[in-house]
Amino acid sequence: MASRDPFSEPFGTLFSENFTIAVGDGDDYSYGGSVEPLRDLVLSPATHALHYGSTCFEGLKAHRQPDGGVAIFRLDDHVARFRQSIAKLYLGVPDAELIRQMVIDAVASNVADCPDAPGSLYIRPTLIGTEPNIGAAATPSKSTLLYILNSPVGDYFAGGIRPLTLLIESSTPRTTPQFGMVKSGANYVMALGVTLDAKRDHVADQVLFATDGDITETGASNFFLVDDKTLITRNLDESFLHGVTRASLLTLANELGYAIEERSISVEELLAWSESGEVFLSGTAAVVAPVGSLIADGHKVQVGDGQPGPNTLKLREALTSIHAGTSDDTHGWMLPV
Ligand SMILES: *Cc1c(COP(=O)(O)O)cnc(C)c1O
Question: How far is ligand 1, taken at its centre, from the CA of residue 126, in Å?
Fold first, then answer.
């Protein structure tokens, strides 16, 4: 890695020196079994992914452990979701074992780059369709590239946790209905327009998508309501991304004695909840991000006292202490590398 400090660089702008890469032909992938120095890719200007969006990715993390090693959080769950995204793009689906090994090899070769908590080594498995064919708009790409990029990251909340401002968007959807569960590039550019407008016109940090009043998630994070007794989040369906952080928080909250409700949440309920309850977002990058205010129909509404609430911080701590290896990993979520 460059000698730059992940704690003073923006998230995702530093890259480790090594990566793993495999070439795919349909469901067959050839991986040399060794890491390579990170290099630029040579692609035909006609590459399928560049024209027709045949690209998807995953995002997970390795965390520094008290014994000095590193451990990867819920690798198998991320591999499973990656394979699901790949299948939705009609690209050749690599064996789970191959993806797993390529992630482990990449992380093992970049272990020295993993910062101490609250930093981590962010892992970005990526798959692109490489068929050089601009006539293939209605045909999947048979040839692909699969690679695992590593990025040392600092604290997402450098300078302390800052409660976010979310603009509630009830008309423009985040993505197309059939792609809600896919971590594919097009979803994120689709959400850009409303997000840029929300930042410019309302100084919002992110957009909360609530198409026809049904709250799902933001552009890249799942959504929760919590108070002293209950944790509420949207029930799973194909409309949104099924976060591994979301699933982990539900498990931990249940163990901490919260009642769990997975169901639809309306904008009216959110606004009423905000008078005394807490609101937060979850995802691999930010882990748990408190929401301090909402913008609904042009009006700003404060959530509670506008500060991170005690239940939000308690759930965050329950998860980050497992990441850091300072509390017991009773679920077998951490894989030492
Ligand atoms: C990645 C992502 C999430 C969070 O998923 P995690 O597995 O918790 O990182 C939520 N929503 C969207 C749209 C995402 O892309």
Answer: 15
